[in-house]
Amino acid sequence: MASGIVFDIKRYALHDGPGIRVVVHFKGCPLSCWWCHNPESQSPAPQLLYRGERCVACDICVGACANGAIVTSGGTMFTDPAKCRQNGKCADVCPSGAREICGARLGVGDVMTEILKERIFFDQSGGGVTLSGGEPLCQPEFAAALLAECKRYGIHTAVDTSGFVAPEVLLGIIPVTDLFLYDIKHMNPEKHMEYTGVDNDMILSNMLRLGERGAVINARMPFIPGVNTDDENMRATGDFLAGARGVTRLNLLPYHSAAEDKHDRWGMEYRLRGAAHPPTENSLRRAAEIVEALGVSAVIGG
Asked: pLDDT, tens digit, for every residue of 94-141?
């Protein structure tokens, strides 16, 4: 059966579709959003992540690395990326959890074993399985096979997607996807390019294609002051969604800065640091009113 790179399987999730869900997080994403909540998901391959604050400088990892990639200088550990083979030997022996391999290749059967442990919660709550990421459709064969297997067991399926994928990939999973959780980050193509690294033409076109094929779509917007919360963008968003078939609602997801810690932990740049803050209740209500005046249901939060 198909296999792919997964970096997390989250149980008892409550904000990724209806009911209680299992969320399978795929590695790899074509976007590089400034506010990314899972920066460790962007690379498609398993990668070594290092938490320097946990390191006790015991040097056990130095001996475990057959490639000589790890050196100690002044009590600080350094890893030479040119020598590191990302095989996880150093993480296996690290006593403090300072080293971790993010991502592992799993087969559909491996993931289903974990999913089926939670089936009683699906049945009781009307929940199911959500594929997320990263961008799950960066691994299209694995995603399609996992969705099909879930449907074989009668499990509700959802796909959390940026929409920045080949149309044939997106349309191809409609028969095995009950709900698309579809990100709308900005309506202005230049701003979208600035904040995510890609423009939004394919994203918007793909949403229209999904609706025309009968897909059920829940649009979701990360609501970030200074980025996309102005009245002009909200009106443009409402106009677009009002003309798209299959859209059940728009969820306004209030920005928070919790991702800063993840970026710091893994030594990644957080580009919104100091430039954004959580939205006020008034700004969220105003945005919801603008969208609803255009005929689109708006929900604050997940």
From this structure: 998 888 888 999 999 999 999 999 999 999 999 999 999 999 999 999
- Report the number of distinct structural domains present in the chain: 2
Regarding whether 259 and 225 lie in a shared domain, the answer is yes
**Span 119-130, pLDDT tens digits:** 999 999 999 999
> What would the DSSP string read from start to end of 179-190?
EEEEE---SSHH
Domain that holds residue 192: 3-44+104-300
Which long-range contacts does 171-176 make (Cβ < 8 Å, 24+ apart)?
Answer: 171/209, 171/210, 171/213, 172/140, 172/144, 173/137, 173/140, 173/143, 173/144, 173/147, 174/210, 174/213, 174/214, 174/215, 176/144, 176/147, 176/148, 176/150, 176/151
Dihedral angle sign, alpha carbons of residues 183, 163, 194, 272:
positive
Residue 289 and residue 178 in one domain: yes
* DSSP single-letter state for residue 265: H
- The pLDDT assigned to 77 comes to 77
Q: How high is the pLDDT of residue 235?
A: 98
